[in-house]
Amino acid sequence: MLLSISTSVALLSTLAPLALAHNHIDEIWANGVHYPGFSPNNPDLPYPSDTPGWYTTNLGGNPLYPVDANQNQIICAKGGSPANISAPLPAGTILRGKWWQGSGWPVSHHGPVIDYIAAYNADPTQLKFVKIAQRGWINNSTYDEGYWASDELIADDSSWNIKIPTGLKAGKYVVRTEIIALHLAHLGTGAYSTNGAEFYPQCINVQVSGTGTKTITGGVDARTFYRGDEPGLFFSNLHDTPNHADYVIPGPAVWSGATTRRSFTA
Ligand SMILES: [Cu+2]
């Protein structure tokens, strides 16, 4: 359908900054040791050998939508395949990722940040994840939409700290960290919507050390995390009020074995 010129211009001016804003985990620290992230914009593909960040064919760092929630790309991003190396770190220490693409995470993309971990498998469809941290709406300050985990991430150099569970048994694991942007969630039309909430998952290989005995139990396939139409994704009033105390973070419950320095919201 043809739009009037004025409507088209208005749409372009609304959408263009969002389209340019997407980014990815560009830098990684494991217990303070720095690694490059996997850059989906790096022209030097094939896959580099110096990053524990998983490869993705999602050149441009584009979002996934509710329609992708039960598809392979939700697991470790589109075309996700394992990194060549794993970042070593002791159980109970911090894995940190910086979301960057010329600039930090866009402030327009308010939403929760959620972290998962699975015992390593080279086949992403075999990974059984538990949720180890989640943070959603924080308070009604700062923005018309309120202050969210994504805003806390921006305030920390566009970075997010993930605590590897204390006492986790030594071994190779895949950490899956994810930002879910809700700024267009009101445009979602249901579980198979091709618009709406935007998912940005990134997987990172870690080699956990220590004498812990905790093994992952009750993990699930990432394709079962989300339906796409639950209240935390199919979200109509982000821009209407800064108060989202009733926001429910989507996905499974936090694993009983998780330990984090970040407080949870419901
Ligand atoms: Cu976006």
From TrEMBL:
InterPro entries: AA9, AA9_LPMO. The lineage of its organism: Eukaryota, Fungi, Dikarya, Ascomycota, Pezizomycotina. Residues 22-239 form the Auxiliary Activity family 9 catalytic domain. One of its GO terms (cellular component) is extracellular region. Its cofactor is Cu(2+). One of its GO terms (molecular function) is monooxygenase activity. Its main location: secreted. The keyword Nucleotide-binding does not apply. Residues 1-21 form the signal peptide. It comes from the Eukaryota. This is Lytic polysaccharide monooxygenase. It holds the Pfam family AA9. Keywords: Disulfide bond, Monooxygenase, Oxidoreductase, Secreted, Signal. It comes from Melanomma pulvis-pyrius CBS 109.77. CDD domains: LPMO_AA9. The keyword Transcription regulation does not apply. Gene3D superfamilies: 2.70.50.70. It is found in: Secreted.
